[in-house]
Design brief:
Layout lengths: L28 H4 L9 E4 L2 E4 L17 H4 L15 H41 L9 H38 L5 H45 L5 H89 L2 H12 L12
Helix pairs in contact: 3-4, 3-5, 3-6, 4-6, 5-6
Length: 345
């Protein structure tokens, strides 16, 4: 539980020069001795407070050496087109949406690969039925017939490859993080955006309280230096101004507490959300990696099966024997083995 801080009425707000506006180049008596103590060490950008470079203890990364999302997306990113700044959480959400889009493009790429395989299988099957050189005979004719049959077998291999590509690669890529994915991402966006709005509101409250304190300090300073013949009434006015100044200081400290509590909540939710988005990105990459590996596995299997379709062709080609083919052809087509002799009278 955070305790409310308040200003010491005797040491802080009784001295109107503490926060009273000063002309350029001038230093109030109270601030002249403590100018180093009030040196700015922090800056608030878009209602989020950061330490200035080189000021205060060096911050340690939440997850050193991991390049984790939770360490590198605290500031808002400037829009190169000159538009509104983009919050760090929005950059992470855009990464997820881009990943979803690229995943879809990969599925489209695999689909095109499938179409090529299907067309190739269709053409191979058609070519295997070609009557070209169907009259070849002997051992060479057997090898030629087997070669044409291997095209049909190879077509079946490629058709099977295309079917597996669809069921084991394309379909999972399309189904991964389906139609509700964008809605789920919007939950992160809306939740963090709501906390940023609360933070902006609390910061506005701090600025309002800061201005109110400055006004009260100025009023106290005027009354302190005012010359009034009615001394008693003048003393009452100073006491009243001092009470209002003290109250304004207390209000400022309360506003600071509310702001810091809200920023702390935003910080915690940013760490949680960024870590969840980081985990989602790891899951996406590993999922795609697994299915692209399945693609290469199927491709290797296809090569192996294709090799098996040509092995019988190789064996028959090794058995081709010109002498045997000549014998078979001569036996079937010879016109007689009796040779001509000389004519006698």
């Amino acid at each position: 539980m955070m305790m409310e801080a308040s200003f010491d009425t005797e040491e802080s707000f009784d001295d109107p020069s503490c926060l009273a506006p000063q002309p350029p180049g001038s230093v109030s008596p109270a601030r002249r001795q403590t100018v180093k103590e009030v040196k700015e060490t922090k800056a608030t950008v878009n209602c989020v407070t950061f330490p200035l470079p080189g000021e205060g203890p060096e911050q340690q990364l939440l997850k050193p050496n991991d390049w984790s999302y939770c360490d590198y997306f605290w500031a808002d990113k400037k829009d190169p087109q000159g538009g509104a700044c983009i919050p760090g959480i929005e950059v992470l959400l855009q990464k997820q949406l881009k990943g979803k889009s690229l995943q879809k493009e990969m599925a489209e790429f695999i689909h095109e690969r499938i179409k090529i395989e299907e067309e190739y299988a269709k053409n191979l099957s058609k070519l295997s039925l070609s009557p070209l050189a169907a009259l070849e005979e002997g051992t060479l004719g057997e090898a030629w017939t087997q070669l044409k049959k291997s095209l049909h077998d190879e077509a079946e291999v490629h058709l099977k490859f295309s079917n597996k590509l669809h069921s084991e690669v394309e379909k999972p890529l399309l189904a991964f993080r389906g139609e509700h994915f964008k809605k789920d991402l919007k939950k992160y966006d809306h939740h963090i955006a709501d906390l940023r709005k609360q933070l902006a509101s609390k910061y506005a409250g701090v600025e309002k309280a800061r201005k109110a304190l400055a006004d009260r300090q100025k009023d106290l300073e005027v009354k302190t230096h005012q010359l009034d013949v009615k001394a008693h009434k003048h003393e009452e006015d100073i006491k009243k101004a001092r009470r209002k100044s003290t109250q304004a200081g207390d209000d400022l400290m309360r506003s600071l507490d509310f702001y810091n509590q809200t920023q702390c909540k935003w910080f915690e939710e940013m760490v949680t959300s960024s870590m969840e988005l980081e985990k989602m990105e790891v899951e996406r990459i590993e999922f795609i990696q697994t299915h692209l590996r399945q693609y290469t596995t199927l491709r290797h299997e296809t090569d192996m099966f294709n090799q098996s379709t040509v092995e019988p062709v190789d064996q028959l080609l090794q058995s081709v024997d010109p002498a045997k083919d000549r014998e078979l052809w001569v036996r079937e087509n010879n016109t007689g083995d009796v040779r001509p002799v000389d004519l006698d009278i």
